[in-house]
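User: Batch of two.

Assistant: Item 1 of 2:
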Amino acid sequence: MTLFLAVVLGAFLFVLHRLFLKPRRAEAWVAERFVATDYGLPPREALDARRAGPPAPTHRAEERQAVADAAWGGDWTSAARYVRAAGEDWDERWGRLELLQHVAQEDDAWLDAWRAAEPGDCDAATLHASLMVHRAWEIRGSGYAHEVLSSDMDRFRAMLPAAIEEARQAALLDPANPGPWVVMVTAARGAQYRPAQFKPLWDELTARAPHHYEGHWQALQYWCAKWFGSDRRMMRFARQAVRTAPPGSPLAGIYLHALGELRARSGADRLPATPLARIMLQQVAASFERVAPDDERLPALRHLLADAMLRSLMYGPALEQFRRIGPWCGAQPWRKDGEPVLAFERARGTAAKLSGARPVPTPRTHGIGH
């Protein structure tokens, strides 16, 4: 019995040292001795907290601004061409609709004109249905149900059936387009759809676009414990997204959002460091290697991956993600305390220290690094 207790105590002290003492010592080391360039990382003075990754290419930003300006000027035809130019790249097509939704939030007269001129256009009808859902969520807010005024909740729930019906009508206009089904999947949880009602919507969406990123993100929200699922159901859904993510798609990032939901519910600072959890994070990282470097969703997902790896005690792989991230630190994991540069520096320094990576000092001439 004494031997057994000694073994248990020893294991406990080992875990305590690994989970708490080593990270605390690493934080002190980061503050006093960490030199980022010695580990292949940009220096602290180069860190940029304005964004999660590099800005969009100039031509892409100019195209978006031109479409927005034309719409606000009353020209809906530019918006229609912009969406149609995405063809059957359904993720890209949805991303363009999301941009137009932001444009319509400020002024939707051009959208009304588009719908009047082309009543049989699926994109225009889908955009209107999506805007209806978004406006309903603006009334409700992002708080938990008990935090929302009953009058606002009543208005929210009254608006969603009309938005879902609008999306159903849009689906009839172009049976191959998954956009209307994304709208319905998005609205389903707010409309209090039970799983038996939700499943047909999901089946219709995935029949048209089995790897639709936004569709999966919305379904993940439906299956989380705060809506109509559970932690177990949500994680099973997220792991399936990783396993089925096709080359070039950032779909595996859905797993990282699930970890965020899990952590928010538990309030725990650490994430599971089980063999399965580590394997899944490794698979996410491998999947990201096949995503186009200019995919604008990728930088923010890399930040989530680096943070998840760090919290799962995967220090070496986390350091590699920090190297790929570069100087950009304006992403969600680092912004919550209002000091993203400090949080980012502490995180990547901890990864460097605890990974066991050997520093390679930057050559210096007259005290100035090359």
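Item 2 of 2:
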Amino acid sequence: MSQMKQFDNIPSTPGKFKMEKSSPYIHRLRWHSSLVKLTFWSFVFLGMILMFLYKSPPSTSSSSSTPDPSRRSLWTPSWGGPAWEKRVRSSARVRSRNGLCVLVTGAAGFVGTHVSAALKRRGDGVLGIDNFNDYYDVSLKRARQALLERTGVFIVEGDINDQALISKLFEVVAFTHVMHLAAQAGVRYAMQNPSSYVHSNIAGFVSLLEVCKSANPQPAIVWASSSSVYGLNTKVPFSEKDRTDQPASLYAATKKAGEEIAHTYNHIYGLSLTGLRFFTVYGPWGRPDMAYFFFTRDMLKGKPIPIFEGPNHGTVARDFTYIDDIVKGCLGALDTAEKSTGSGGKKKGPAQLRVFNLGNTSPVPVSELVSILERLLKVKAKRTVLKMPRNGDVQFTHANISYAQSEFGYKPTTDLQTGLKKFVRWYLSYYSGGKKSAQ
């Protein structure tokens, strides 16, 4: 009670509160007040520090210098300035008659690296952009970057969601085409990090289209969709005319969303858009999360590998497509892409809208893939047969490629035995023969 009376004696106007200096209560009150002030200002200063550290570098004009590295964002690498713009223009310079000027997103990725190199070899202007995320071994992406730099392709480090950066690239270079390959890949990883798929595959695509629609002239856009959009469809082979409204995974759903978004931007803004549905791409410089890649790694280490089977011991098969065949399809789509019909965000007429399957048309059981690797690696695989998990994967894929054949002569020529032989040769050279080790 005495404690309650002590609080009752405290007036509502703290400034007029008086008590003898010797009172223990006043010392406690002053200590409490000081602690509150200290805590408040600590949070204020912490907030100011965080704002400083995370502040993105200011956009720079062509006459400005490169931002001070000490003010560089923790997440977005600095860009801009005369030296940077010179590298951008040099990389994007067209060196062949009637050549294309192409912005390749996801240029440090598996398909992006091969497509960029192929375009550069034939004299097209090529500029890459990649955010070098850590979904898989970043050192492999850096090695691909070094490979492209030796061919004259500059990769700008940045995110496709950064509209200021993308707009700046279009300000510096008048791209005739965009090869949009940047995406969050992988079916199973979507169960662990779904937001990354929405951020990259949907928001990132929209951000890119927003810049392209306002460009003058608008570029023609070819982008990577996925065979995964066929989802629960059991018809074989898959045709572009089949329904794709039952995606089996979030990854497939984001890719399907991309196709619908493309239709909208084509309809409203006159953007020329071509979607490519890739079927299980493999080959040198491939992705470590793909079965053929980690099978090779684990077989060489003597580790067991999982062989999935469908219901009632059904075979799991894939339409494995070698990277060189995919590149031919990408270039064919770029070469036959018509000009966009809009300008500055305004549509002036109907624009081209296409979707193609790019596959090998020869599904191979995963067990046969392992047998081929056994012969090439000269090791016996420790197979562990498991039921197919409910993670969004489908039991089989098989591409009908007649549309791509009729439109630009797409014709895959590499069988799985030949393609895996080339992959194994690269793998042994890159990992076993060099200083790197597979994780």
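The radius of gyration is 28 Å.
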